[in-house]
Design goal:
- The chain is α+β, with helices and mostly antiparallel strands.
- Helices cover about 45% and strands about 15% of the residues.
- The protein contains 6 helices and 9 strands.
- The longest helix is centred in the first third of the chain and has 30 residues.
- It is globular, with a radius of gyration of 23 Å.
- The chain starts with a helix and ends with a strand.
């Protein structure tokens, strides 16, 4: 809605000033206004593609945007291949039997890992790793949860690192998804409460 008001204001401003401009300036202003409309149109079109396209992955959930792993993720997988997706198969675990374990690991990692952005701690824009020093950002938090759960016997085919975008606060994020017989659950750095992916305030990207 704010974007619509801004373009309406720009158009009104254009109409109000068109009589006071010379012919050359008027032509330039018209060209600029048309260019603004084109930018707005393609921006909205791109947004529609990202948020409405139905693309189903191997997980039992709708993925609204599928993209190749970042260089940081690829580099991580070269060093920690056992913590990356192994194949195109998914193993479903019993939620009733794993609830206590999932809650324990989620809360423990959230409390133990001190949050710090990659540029601040590693002097890199993006760096995925196991937070062995007890410091990391959201993807490191998710990685540590996956590492602990796998060590405790949870199949890695049930655990997926996922990148997402908050649909209200508009920031990039990473979480751990767990495939259970009651749906895909989200283990999130921002909450000790485990919820279904459909209840999480995210647009999942990969």
């Amino acid at each position: 809605m704010a974007r619509q008001k801004r373009y309406n204001f720009s158009f009104a401003f254009f109409l109000a000033r068109r009589k006071s401009k010379g012919k050359g300036e008027l032509i330039m202003q018209i060209g600029g206004f048309v260019l603004s409309l084109m930018v707005a149109f393609f921006s909205l079109e791109s947004f529609a593609i990202i948020t409405s396209k139905k693309d189903f992955s191997i997980l039992p959930l709708e993925v609204r945007k599928v993209k190749a792993g970042t260089d940081a993720y690829q580099n991580f997988c070269q060093s920690y291949s056992d913590l990356c997706a192994s194949n195109n198969l998914t193993t479903t675990i019993a939620y009733s039997e794993s609830t206590a374990l999932l809650n324990l690991v989620n809360s423990a990692v959230n409390n133990e890992i001190q949050f710090m952005n990659d540029p601040e701690f590693y002097d890199r824009e993006e760096f995925w790793t196991v937070p062995e020093q007890g410091i990391g950002d959201c993807e490191d938090n998710a990685i540590e949860k996956k590492r602990r759960l796998q060590a405790l016997g949870v199949p890695r085919e049930s655990l997926y690192l996922a990148t997402a975008f908050h649909n209200q606060k508009y920031y990039a994020h990473a979480v751990l998804l767990v495939v259970t017989d009651r749906g895909v659950m989200v283990l999130d750095q921002d909450s000790d409460k485990i919820i279904k992916w459909s209840q999480a305030p995210y647009i999942f990207e990969a």
